[in-house]
Structure formats: C-alpha cells, structure tokens
Amino acid sequence: MSDETGTPDTSAASTSGAAQGGGPRPEPLRFFGTSWVDHDNGYAARRAGVAIGSLAAAAASCLVLRFAYEGIQIADTGSFVTVLVVAMFAICSALAFRNTWDGFGKRHDPQRQASLRGLLAIGFVGSLLAYFFRSLTEAPGEKLHREEYEQAREAHERRTNRRTGNPSKKKRRR
To answer: What are the pLDDT digits (tens) for 21-31?
Structure first.
C-alpha cells in the first residue's frame, strides 16, 4: 500500500511473479488494474463488464442526445440549426472514436489532447463506442501497455544479466 496516497499497491510484483526482484512493474489499466498481464483475477468477466457497460453508456447517451434533438425541434429553431447540431455531434463523435482508437495503440501528445478536450467531450459517444469495440478483443490499451512492459522487462534483464556477482567483493588490482 502506498503510504502517500493510501491506495493499495497494484504492481505486478504484488499481483504476479513476473516482476519480482525490483524489476519493472506494469502500468494498471482502468477497470483492469494489472490483471491484463496474466489474464487472471476475473479478467474475462471484467472485459465482458466493460463491453456491456460501455455499450449501455453509449445507448443511454444516444437517448439523451435524442431528447436534445427533440428539444431543438420543439424550439422550432429551423432546419439549418438542426442540421448543424446533428452534423456537429456526428463529426465530433467520429473524431473522438478515431482519437480514442488510436490511443489504444500509441501514446498521445499531451498538448494535442489538451487542445482536443472540447471536441472529445462533444463526441463522447464515439469514445464510448471505441471502448466497446476494443473491449471485445482485449482490455482497452492492453496492447500498448504489454509492448511497453515487455520492452522494460527485456531492458531490465539485459541490465541485470550483465552484472556478475557482488561488486563489493570484487578483487582489486594493485
């Protein structure tokens, strides 16, 4: 458990034997923790839950957008405003889907993400759908985290295998 934050320690060294001995620890994923490393601790159930939850949230969001559309119709603002609002949500959802989907395979630039925050908030349905489709095959972000974790483990093994013995007991040349 972390002393500073009071949160439980969910590192791989505490949940799996892969990184014992001070090796690299996998980064936890939202809703999955580090269960994605060995696909244990209810990984399949969590994936099913995430898929169902994100699809249900997307459906509920579409219902809310439907009420907003009906509100625009009741306000009788005209067809131009109606088409503009529908196009805005459709385009922003498509861009949010693509951005979220790309985020599962590579790290985003934080400055670019900050500038896209408003667009991604408008296109939240696209992000939810991307999360749903990715959770059908793997934990969202698992591929990226697995690649980074494997690289870190290989680098750690190269560093530790280079060392032989205790350096303090090394014979000194005179």
So the answer is: 678 888 888 88
